[in-house]
Amino acid sequence: MTVAPPAPAVAGLPAARPVRHRRRAALTFAVLGTALLVLAVLAAGIGQLSVPPAEVVGSVLHRIGLDVGPLPSHPNGDAALWSIRFPRVAMAVLVGAALATAGAVMQGVFGNPLAEPGVVGVSSGAALAASATIVFGITVLGPWTLAAAAFVGGLVATLLVYVLARADGRTEVVTLVLTGVALNAFTGAGLGFLTFLGDTQAREQIVFWQLGSLNGSRWQYVGVVAPLVAVGLAGAFLVARRLDLLALGDRAARHVGVDVERLRLVCIVLVALLAAAAVAFCGIIAFVGLVVPHLVRMVCGPGHRVLVPASALGGAVLLLAADLVARNAVAYADLPIGMLTALVGSPVFFWLLRRSRRTAGGWA
């Protein structure tokens, strides 16, 4: 009797798939890291006062003590870079990373691909609380007041979404989206009321919040946002492995030792922290947390240990590119960056909604 040897192609598939995913992940990190560096240099140099890339790099190297590369030839070039351009670039990187990571964590904890801070009302909840501090002149925590208020507003909104959208241990797509619609309508009404109450300066700030913009970013704002984003990112990286276990289902996750309710509570706090840090000085910038995790998931797979850091990197790249377009698409004008991200994110959201409906076999 002869025994047929196993087919090499079939036998090699289970071992080849992780190797292929690791290669794709490594390539994704390399491409995104390179894109981030290139975009950061271009974004710092392009504007009404143009600074060549070599002079941008030279200015940075001279600041860190390396006498390498040319300094900006324009008399105001170095001052423009360090007082206006670099703070804006740093803020774009921080806010993009925070929003994309919040979206990846939120989708993991809800088990739903449509969960995103902007779509389900978390960002607008944070904006409502922050706008209230502007209108009523609350400054109990000094420069941290706005960020703290945004954190509390984002936390309350996230808890509301979690409680209202979840039933029988799972989150339905329709319930999640409708909860987000209702929450966005409520916060929109609140913002309208605060706009009515506020003076001219407060109204301008609230309108700025609703449109979203990186204009006016300063180092002191970056100094407030950076530690919040760092804590949020570190927490998201730490819970990434347990989110992979949670994707197997609540019962399976508990069976391998995961405290599911505690994990969900920690993730909700992390999402609120990241969303609050993102909107505290830049307003509502929607759809970054929806688009980026989906694109990364299509390339690297659903594992959160790769998805979370790659989404942070991808969010930074996306927002830096969007801000570059916002500053230079129209001469002598600064377009609202929230408008640009909505132009890209809305069709993606519609496509995901249709695909989720097709996968679920209809919602009627």
TrEMBL record:
GO terms for molecular function: transmembrane transporter activity. It comes from Modestobacter roseus. The lineage of its organism: Bacteria, Bacillati, Actinomycetota, Actinomycetes, Geodermatophilales. This is Iron complex transport system permease protein. The keyword Transcription regulation does not apply. Gene3D superfamilies: ABC transporter involved in vitamin B12 uptake, BtuC. GO terms for biological process: siderophore-iron import into cell. It is found in: Cell membrane. The keyword Cytoplasm does not apply. The chain crosses the membrane at residues 25-46, 86-106, 118-138, 144-164, 176-198, 218-243, 263-286, 333-353. GO terms for cellular component: plasma membrane. Keywords: Cell membrane, Membrane, Transmembrane, Transmembrane helix, Transport. It is a multi-pass membrane protein. Belongs to the binding-protein-dependent transport system permease family. FecCD subfamily.
